[in-house]
Amino acid sequence: MIHRPRRLRRNNALRSLVRETRLTPDNFVLPFFVCPGNAVRREISSMPDVFNLSVDEVTKEASAAYDSGVRSIILFGLPESKDELASGAYAEDGIVQRATRAIRRSVPELIIIADTCLCEYTSHGHCGVVRGGEVLNDESLELLARTAASQAAAGADIVAPSAMMDGQVGAIRDALDESGFENTAIMAYAVKYASGFYGPFREAAQSAPEFGDRRAYQMDPPNAREAMREAELDYSEGADILMVKPATVYLDVLKMVRDRFDVPLAAYHVSGEYALIKAAAQKGWIDEDRVMMETLTSIKRAGADIILTYYAREAIRALAAAT
Questions:
Q1: Non-local CB neighbours of 50 within 8 Å, separated by 6+ positions
Q2: Are 217 and 135 contacting, i.e. CB atoms less than 8 angstroms apart?
Q3: What's the CA gap between 205 and 31, in Å, rounded?
Q4: Helix (H, G, I), strand (E, B) or coil at 239
Q5: What pLDDT score was predicted for residue 276?
Q6: pLDDT at residue 84, as a whole number
Q7: Secondary structure E strands in the chain
Q8: Fewer Cβ within 10 Å of end Cβ, the chain: N or C?
Q9: Is 283 known to be catalytic?
Q10: Is 249 part of a structural domain of the chain?
């Protein structure tokens, strides 16, 4: 007998009938960068079609995104000023806190995730307290916990600790529970590599380190088994969702986390991954929509339930056009 797999590929209806991996609008989280000022809409040069937005503008954009089918967003903040202890991260009137309140009033049904880190708010650009040129782990936990509680108080549904400090999820869970935010979920950047794909983000968030780099606390790219230990620690400390970052160059790690942990799994299709597709498309070398959807499908196929991507709106439009 001759096996003919092509029988089920003959037309779009058949291909759709037997399709194994399906993207839906609910899979996507759209990132926003919130900056000071009013009526600010400043395109990020290395990330075409992505902007630094003031609170009034990000509120409009969040509402428009919801109308287009986006159901979840994540907020990153650019504060008015920075200091050594990242006070803007946990201030009651911090930039993310103000944006969260404004968006919550405008689009109450939208899921708001707050990135919980310190690097955008520190004068030195590192993700924790620095003393003697070293990023101090345990001293940073208190500030991260205060930041998460402040974000929850502003109305964030989910806080997303991304500093890669040991014990950060446990410290944040304790702080949330003690502050009465036991229903606020934690999406842990459990497996976050010290990646070269973050360059455009650092322009967008103005968060490049003043000295050194983040390799002493973010993961070493050659390591995969270590990722299981990081994920296990965050899971044991109470993470509700685990994340792998970046996505496409760590699909093997994403699959390993999926196979081991039975909790919702997120992957961040990061700025550099987005910028590569944009740049090639602008050169006319690739079909942008086709490569975008193929890339996002690969992330879903590897096991991600949630995909953070700057392409969220475009992907939802492509899905709608395909139906």
A1: 33, 43, 44, 204, 274, 310
A2: yes
A3: 11
A4: coil
A5: 97
A6: 87
A7: 28-34, 41-44, 47-53, 72-77, 111-116, 129-131, 134-136, 158-161, 185-192, 241-245, 265-269, 306-309
A8: N
A9: no
A10: yes
Query: 32 φ, ψ to 5°?
Result: -130, 145
CATH of residue 312's domain is 3.20.20.70
Question: Could you tell me if residue 139 is inside a domain?
Answer: yes
User: 3-state DSSP: the chain helix, strand, coil percent, rounded to 5?
Assistant: 45, 20, 35
Of the listed 245, 255, 278, 283, which one is catalytic? 245
Domain enclosing residue 217, as ranges = 21-322
Determine, yes or no, domain membership for 123. yes
Q: Which residues of the chain have pLDDT under 70?
A: 207-212
* 20, two tokens: 């194994």
- The residues with which 42 forms a beta bridge, in sequence order, are 52
Please name the residues in contact with 108: beta carbons below 8 A apart, sequence gap of 6 or more. none
Query: Quick one: which of 35, 36, 106 has its CA closest to 67?
Result: 106
Give how many domains the chain has, as a whole number: 1
Tokens of 217: 């606390």
pTM value is 0.95
Alpha-carbon gap, residue 138 to 128, rounded angstroms:
9
CA distance 270 to 201: 8
Selected catalytic residue, list 82, 192, 278, 300: 192
Tokens 């899905």 belong to residue: 319
pLDDT digit string, tens, across residues 12-28: 999 999 999 999 999 99
* Interatomic CA distance for residues 323 and 319, integer angstroms: 7
Sign of the CA dihedral 165, 168, 170, 171? Answer: positive
Distance CA 303, CA 256 (A): 9
Q: Is 278 one of the catalytic residues?
A: no
The structure tokens listed for 272 are: 């550099």
